[in-house]
Write a structure and sequence with these properties.
By secondary structure, the chain is an alpha+beta fold. The chain has 3 helices and 7 strands.
Length: 127
C-alpha cells in the first residue's frame, strides 16, 4: 500500500519533473526504457507514445516510471492501460499536455496512444 506521505512526495515531484523514464518489458523478458514527456492527473501519470513501449503495455499492462534525478529518486511501479480518444479522460489530459509542453496530443494519435500508469508501489529516497 502506498502511504499518504509517499503520495504527497510523488505529487510534488511529478509537478516539477519535465521528463520521466518509462520502463516496460518485452515478450522475451528484456526491459525497454525510454525518457518521455508526461503529465500527472488525479494521482496517475499519462504518456503519449508508440513503438516498443506501446506494444509492451498492450501485451502485459505494466510499467515502471523513474524520475531523472538519480539522487532524489521517485520510482512508480504500476498498471498501465491505453486511454482511447473517446474516453472522458482523454480531453483533460490532452489539455494538460498542451499547457505543459505546448503539444496537442490530438495531432499525434495516428500511431501513438495515450497510456495511463496507475501507481501500485512507490519507492522514494532523498526526496
Amino acid at each position: 500500500m502506498i502511504s499518504i506521505e509517499q503520495m504527497a512526495t510523488v505529487r510534488q515531484r511529478m509537478q516539477s519533473e519535465r521528463n520521466i523514464w518509462m520502463a516496460t518489458t518485452r515478450p522475451d523478458g528484456r526491459p525497454h526504457v525510454a525518457p518521455l514527456w508526461f503529465v500527472w492527473h488525479d494521482d496517475r501519470a499519462y504518456v503519449m507514445t508508440s513503438g516498443v513501449k506501446l506494444a509492451n503495455v498492450r501485451r502485459n499492462g505494466l510499467a515502471t516510471l523513474n524520475t531523472e534525478d538519480g539522487n532524489r529518486v521517485v520510482i512508480i511501479e504500476g498498471t498501465a492501460r491505453i486511454v482511447p480518444q473517446e474516453d472522458v479522460l482523454f480531453e483533460p489530459v490532452a489539455e494538460l499536455f498542451q499547457q505543459r509542453y505546448d503539444w496537442d496530443i490530438r495531432d499525434s494519435v495516428n500511431g501513438n496512444e495515450l497510456i495511463e500508469v496507475t501507481p501500485v508501489k512507490v519507492i522514494t529516497w532523498n526526496t
